[in-house]
Every structure is written in C-alpha cells, then in structure tokens.
C-alpha cells in the first residue's frame, strides 16, 4: 500500500500538493507468503515523464527528500507488515512521478537485482494558495 499525504494511491490517482509543503509518504509492505522475506532495500526515485518515452531523473533542483529515499529491510515475517515513512518537498510546480522498487540486498540469493516494482505514483505540485 502507498499513501501520499495520507491518501491511498494507485496508478489511476493523481495526488495534488503545494510547492514548499512537505508531503508525507508511507509505503506498507505486507508479506502474504508462508515464509519470511528479506533482506532487501526499498528505493523511491522521483522523475518527470515527458510523454515521449523520455523520463527525467535529474530533479535535484525540483524535489528533495526529507530523510532518506532508501530504506533497508532485514526481514518481514509471514502475514506481517513493514511500514516505511518519508516525505517529499517540491520546489517547483509540475507533474512528477515516484518510482518505487524493492531490491534484493543479499548477494547469496538468486533473485534479480530489482524484483518488485510498484506502479508509479503521480504527484502534481501546484502553487501555494495565497
């Protein structure tokens, strides 16, 4: 589950926020398997989609994370949750997306480097209301 500013998000929802206000992020991972999973890392990467096949990931002047954009997870037990909190601060207006990936963080395992990608979250940063 992904929550942006307290609202559940999926690929069909556009979340609107204001430039200059921290936007709380919450990613909850639920392990529905019968075995513990981990260790792995959760990485959140913002980008802009130019709608022509080009994604701009060079956004250090437009977006900043409050805290880290990567969280390390030792293990998630069967039927349990692991919740990670962060925040984004938008410095300019525009339409942005957040790419969320879980990466294998154990060399002895044989999973691909990036083995679970969630649908991108669409966030629209607007001017503050005067």
TrEMBL record:
Domain of life: Eukaryota
InterPro entries per UniProt: Ig_TRAPPC9_Trs120_4th, Trs120_TRAPPC9
GO-annotated cellular components: trans-Golgi network
A Pfam family matched in the record: Ig_TRAPPC9-Trs120_4th
Domain spans labelled Trs120/TRAPPC9 fourth Ig-like: 16-125
Name of this protein: TPPC9 protein
Species this protein is from: Eulacestoma nigropectus (wattled ploughbill)
């Amino acid at each position: 589950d992904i929550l942006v500013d307290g609202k559940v998000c999926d690929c069909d929802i556009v979340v609107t926020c204001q430039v200059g206000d921290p936007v709380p992020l919450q990613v909850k991972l639920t392990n529905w398997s019968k075995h513990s999973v981990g260790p792995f890392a959760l990485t959140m990467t913002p980008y802009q989609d130019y709608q022509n096949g080009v994604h701009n990931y060079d956004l250090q002047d437009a977006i900043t994370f409050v805290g880290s954009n990567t969280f390390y997870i030792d293990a998630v037990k069967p039927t349990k949750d692991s919740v990670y909190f962060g925040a984004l601060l938008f410095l300019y207006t525009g339409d942005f997306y957040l790419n969320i990936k879980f990466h294998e963080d154990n060399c002895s395992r044989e999973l691909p480097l990036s083995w679970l990608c969630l649908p991108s979250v669409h966030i629209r940063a607007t001017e503050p209301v005067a």
